[in-house]
Design a protein that fits this description.
The chain is an alpha/beta fold. The protein is about 40% helix and about 20% strand. It folds into two domains: about 1-145, HUPs (Rossmann fold, 3-Layer(aba) Sandwich), CATH 3.40.50.620; about 145-273, Rossmann fold (3-Layer(aba) Sandwich).
Length: about 270
């Protein structure tokens, strides 16, 4: 891992993401590219060419001035920082920037558990998750002691989750982290122990990951099982596979995905299938 891309709006949430990115950069000897995307309004861009250029330059200079105090943090000491200020018309452009900067990971801040619906579904973060071809790590709370030792893959054990497992396993190997999988058995979709073991075995055989351990966990719902298991096992990251434009895959669709995201108080990693 050589370059981390961190979108910032100079908020507390962006600062939380930057601190986590700094911890990763220190471990991986990576560069951090911070980008502030202006999103100048149509009112500015609709003026004549001279006025438009003058006002655009004003906002560009203002943003660059804000970089200095925002980046003046002890946790960034010794880390190579690239700074980008850019206007955008579509937040999906962040994927293009990630490609141009040869970024390996996007680290984004969120508004915490209570605001996940507002910030994620139909928002800029959702657009980044859906368009990014590289993993996106979403930081929801201050995490000065961030570590990557245990990653839980929220797996459906369907065939299209195999690609997600491969990508997340690769991410775990970068950090020498332990990758954990669980099957959540619920009353609504209850399977016997033999049926669960058969389903898991078939999935791991197709994935060519026969040695991967899978825990079986009983709970009233999939999302509650994932959350309770994560707290019990002290998971550092919840990993989720997405289908690009279709969003979160398989059982992590609609209310289940939203409930998981709303109540999870740990970082969420998304990878595109």
């Amino acid at each position: 891992m050589t370059n981390l891309l961190v979108p910032i709006d100079f908020s507390e949430h962006a600062s939380n993401a930057l601190e986590v990115a700094a911890i990763i950069a220190q471990q991986q000897n990576a560069t951090i590219t911070v980008i502030h995307m202006l999103g100048l309004s149509e009112a500015v861009l609709a003026k004549n060419e001279i006025q438009e250029q003058e006002e655009a330059n004003y906002y560009l200079k203002l943003a660059k001035k804000r970089f200095k105090p925002f980046l003046d943090n002890p946790y960034l000491k010794g880390i190579r920082i690239n700074k980008i200020v850019q206007n955008y018309k579509n937040f999906n452009e962040l994927n293009t920037i990630a490609h141009e900067e040869h970024s390996d990971l996007i680290v984004m801040g969120s508004h915490g558990t209570s605001g996940f619906n507002e910030f994620f579904f139909g928002s800029n973060t959702e657009k980044v998750v859906r368009s990014a071809n590289i993993p996106v790590l979403i930081i929801k709370n201050p995490n000065p002691n961030f570590k990557v030792e245990k990653i839980l893959f929220a797996c459906s054990f369907q065939d299209d989750a195999i690609a997600g497992l491969k990508k997340i396993k690769g991410f775990a190997e970068i950090f020498s982290a332990k990758l954990k999988l669980i099957y959540v058995n619920t009353p609504d979709n209850f399977l016997s122990m033999l049926e669960v073991q058969d389903k898991i075995s078939k999935f791991l055989f197709k994935a060519m990951e026969a040695d991967q351990m899978v825990d079986i966990y009983n709970d009233y719902s999939v999302e509650q099982g994932l959350i309770n298991y994560s707290r019990k096992e002290k998971i550092d990251i919840m990993a989720i596979a997405t289908h690009g434009r279709k969003g979160i895959s398989n059982f992590l669709i609609g209310s289940i995905g939203e409930n998981l995201a709303n109540h999870a108080d740990y970082p969420i990693l998304t990878v595109k299938l």
